[in-house]
Amino acid sequence: MRPRPEVLASAPVVHGGAPPGLVDFSVNSNPLGPAPAVLAACRAATIDRYPEPHAAPLRAALAATLGLAPDQVLVGNGSSELLWLLALAYLERGDRVLVVGPTFGEYARACQLLGAVVTELRAQADDAFQPDIAALVASARALRPKLTFLCNPNNPTGVYLPAKVVAALLDAVPGLLVLDEAYVDFVEAPWDARPLLADSRLVLLRSLTKSHALAGVRLGYALAAPATIAHLQAVQPPWSVNTVAIAAGLAAVEAGHHVAAGRRLARAAVAYLSDQLRGLGWAPRPTAANFLLVEVRDAAATTAALRQYGIQVRDCTSFGLPAYVRLGARPLGDCAALVAVAGRLATAEVV
Ligand SMILES: Cc1ncc(COP(=O)(O)O)c(C=O)c1O
């Protein structure tokens, strides 16, 4: 039995992650780990019953916290599930999709699996990885993509676009603009994208996986017009958000202070790493997020050398950036350990 041709053509996306025992700078989540109340809620979750098919209690709690109606919210098994649902709900073979790159690889993969033709408009290192907005607007008008993906702040560049730029892009797209705010909770002074939901072409994605360090639980949500949410729900498998994740989410909604503390630590960690690594001759880029894109000579060699010392970083070759590694914020002791190893490697002229 042969699957659809898109299945055979599809290659898995490379992601971060490290085996136990390594200090993992390759994943970008709250450096404090999960909040104690969230851990307690996970432990207390009832796991011998089916959850609500579409996580209704958590949806209601998120809606109340965000000042939206429950029919403007859909909870997913990570925000990844939600972007896959967007592809599934809207794309037919041959449809066009625009991706503002370099960025998270699942946007393109999900869309290509549905047979869509993906155009990536890449920001360039020479432009400080700022996307060319005029070119984006022109492409949106020329290509007429059904979906346009913009990650803000962007993974892996850390670039954060202001409201007026996103609003200009939203004006130009004929289809849906998917604004992925997976890392927005780590921005020092973020702007509020919710007012843009007045335009029914906007879909906002957010990730509790990142804000609350719940990578293993998997939890994210989409905010959009009720009709869009209904389309996404129509293609979402029932029970995809499990009982433990719903319990974690309900506790997380009450634990905003933990996100704020994680943001403060993340800001301190990236500032420290940036400063120290620059002193060693590495070239960190400015970042608005809880991770740092660092120019090195050879990402693969640097990643391998750091691994010898028990440190995992994200080799950005798979983003098309073979001279960059990405470092996620971690507690300051771990950051000091990374700087010490980087110093040894620099002295030995290994990297
Ligand atoms: C930009 C971006 N969006 C979404 C995700 C997926 O996050 P989640 O764990 O919520 O599925 C990631 C994970 O790395 C990401 O980098």
Please state roughly what percent of the residues sit in beta strands, choosing from under 5%, 5-15%, 15-25%, 25-35%, 35-45% or over 45%.
15-25%
| SSE sequence, one letter per element | HEHHEHEHEHEHEEHEHHHEEHEEEH
Domain count: the total is 2
- CATH homologous superfamily of the largest domain, by name? Type I PLP-dependent aspartate aminotransferase-like (Major domain)
* Largest sheet strand order: 2-8-7-6-5-3-4
Would you count the extended β strands for me?
Answer: 13
Whole-number mean pLDDT = 96
> Helicity, in percent?
40-55%
Question: How is the main sheet built?
Answer: 7 strands, mixed
- Tally of contiguous helical segments: 13
For this structure, the CATH topology of the largest domain is Aspartate Aminotransferase, domain 2
What small-molecule ligands were found? pyridoxal-5'-phosphate
What is the 3D form? globular
Radius of gyration: 20 Å
The helix-and-strand class reads alpha/beta
The poorly predicted ranges are: none
What is the CATH C-level name of the largest domain?
Alpha Beta
Structure report:
- By secondary structure, this protein is of the alpha/beta class.
- It has two domains: 5-29 and 258-347, Aspartate Aminotransferase, domain 1, CATH 3.90.1150.10; 36-256, Aspartate Aminotransferase, domain 2.
- It is built from 13 helices and 13 strands.
- It has helices spanning 5-9, 36-44, 56-66, 78-90, 106-113, 133-143, 163-172, 208-211, 226-235, 243-253, 256-279, 299-307, 332-347, and strands at 23-24, 73-76, 96-101, 117-122, 147-151, 176-180, 202-207, 220-223, 283-284, 291-295, 311-312, 314-315, 324-328.
- A hairpin with an 8-residue loop joins strand 12 (314-315) and strand 13 (324-328).
- The N and C termini lie far apart (48 Å).
- The protein binds pyridoxal-5'-phosphate.
- Pyridoxal-5'-phosphate binds at residues 78-80, 104, 151, 155, 180, 182, 207, 209, 215, 220.
